[in-house]
Automatic annotation (TrEMBL):
Short name of one Pfam family: TPT
Stretches with biased composition (Low complexity): 9-27
InterPro entries: Sugar_P_trans_dom, TPT_transporter
Keyword Cytoplasm: no
Keyword Transmembrane helix: yes
Protein name: Sugar phosphate transporter domain-containing protein
Annotated compartments: Endoplasmic reticulum membrane
Family: Belongs to the TPT transporter family. SLC35D subfamily.
Length: 378
């Protein structure tokens, strides 16, 4: 789910987010991490229960009849969805940063985001029932959806815990390998990409690593949890795509409606366990929850709902791997925005990394476009 879950920065308390701890935002890695809101134990059964509607063989061998769902979508539609996703994603991360400066409860903010998503879907179902009709879902499918909501929450929790044990640059460079993890999961499930697609991922991952270059530090447990977080993030993206395009073929709004209430409850339980609920009650008793902050939270929740819908729809139309690549590009654009809006210092190596990553993203886009054209000709 694209609700912006706030991973914490490297600090003693695992509940505090990177935004709320005021890290040194002069570093590109710290600045990118302060904006990362990705942005969550299911097993292989979660994926195996959903038929993969996406079978792509390498371009050189065969494309015609086994194209993935994303290759049936027009380029214009994909670009529109990706543009909306980028704008809303960057907008929400900026908004989250501003809100968390006054509302230092990241897990409660995640609870509010998921609750807003549920309320938004329910409102659409009541006001425009033709736009959101619930499909018949059996007991087995309900268990799959419940496991998916757990995957979302576990992904956030692992990211939170690992950040307290590793440096921000280490966390960023490991998270940049999410597209690689996505490819490996697909390979395990029987889907392969063309050779050029694999090669185009190299500059994307390497570029993000260079752009967030800094002091690397990690405990063995912290490094293990960080890599686990990458796997879970990729698994979540692939699982989302399969729920939208596999045997269930749920519409984006319906998947959001079925998943968000469960995720909201789980986030609230986590907020309670980490002490955020108690701190919030004290915060409210001291009169800090004013009208301005309430309005800001309402606007934040509405934007989170829009981003959730856009993220799910983009995943469905553009594909899980493309969405993972977008996550890397978002890190680069976040640092670029930081240099303009917040005077973030960028060194030569960081700048080279940004250029390499953006060039890799352009190359990846061309490769995917070539695959689509080759499939259309065959």
């Amino acid at each position: 789910m694209a609700t912006s879950p706030p991973p914490t920065d490297s600090a003693s308390s695992p509940r505090l987010s990177s935004q709320s701890q005021s890290p040194d935002l002069r570093s590109p890695a710290s600045f990118a991490e302060s904006f990362e809101m990705d942005e969550t134990s299911p097993s292989a059964g979660l994926l195996s229960q959903m038929d993969d509607a996406e079978k792509q063989t390498p371009v050189e061998a065969q494309i015609a009849k086994n194209d993935a769902h994303e290759y049936t979508i027009t380029t214009r539609t994909k670009m529109l969805c990706l543009s909306l996703y980028f704008l809303m994603n960057l907008g929400l991360t900026l908004y989250n940063k501003a809100v968390l400066g006054r509302f230092n409860f990241p897990w409660l903010l995640t609870t509010f985001h998921t609750t807003s998503a549920a309320l938004g879907c329910w409102t659409i179902m009541l006001v425009a029932p033709d736009q959101l009709k619930l499909s018949h879902v059996g007991r087995q499918e309900q268990m799959v959806l419940a496991a998916f909501s757990v995957l979302f929450t576990v992904n956030i929790a692992i990211s939170n815990v690992s950040l307290a044990m590793v440096s921000v640059p280490f966390h960023q460079i490991v998270r940049s390998t999410t597209p690689v993890a996505t490819v490996l999961i697909y390979r395990w499930l029987g889907r392969s990409y063309g050779t050029m697609t694999y090669i185009s991922l190299i500059p994307i991952v390497a570029g993000v690593g260079l752009s967030t270059y800094g002091d690397y530090y990690a405990t063995l447990l912290g490094a293990s949890l960080t890599f686990l977080g990458v796997f879970l993030a990729a698994l979540k993206t692939v699982a989302t795509n399969k729920l939208l395009t596999g045997s269930l073929k749920l519409p984006a709004l319906e998947l959001l409606l079925r998943m968000s209430p469960l995720a909201a409850v789980q986030s609230l339980l986590w907020a309670t366990a980490t002490g955020e609920v108690s701190a919030f009650l004290k915060f409210t008793a001291e009169g800090n929850l004013g009208t301005y902050l309430i309005l800001a939270l309402l606007g934040n929740g509405f934007l989170a709902f829009l981003l959730n819908v856009t993220s799910f729809q983009t995943n469905k139309l553009a594909g899980a791997l493309t969405l993972s690549v977008c996550g890397n590009v978002k890190q680069i654009l976040t640092v670029v925005l930081g240099t303009v809006l917040f005077d973030v210092a960028v060194g030569t190596m960081n700048a080279v990394g940004m250029i390499v990553a953006l060039g890799g993203a352009a190359w990846y886009s061309k490769v995917e476009l070539d695959v689509k054209r080759a499939g259309a000709r065959s």
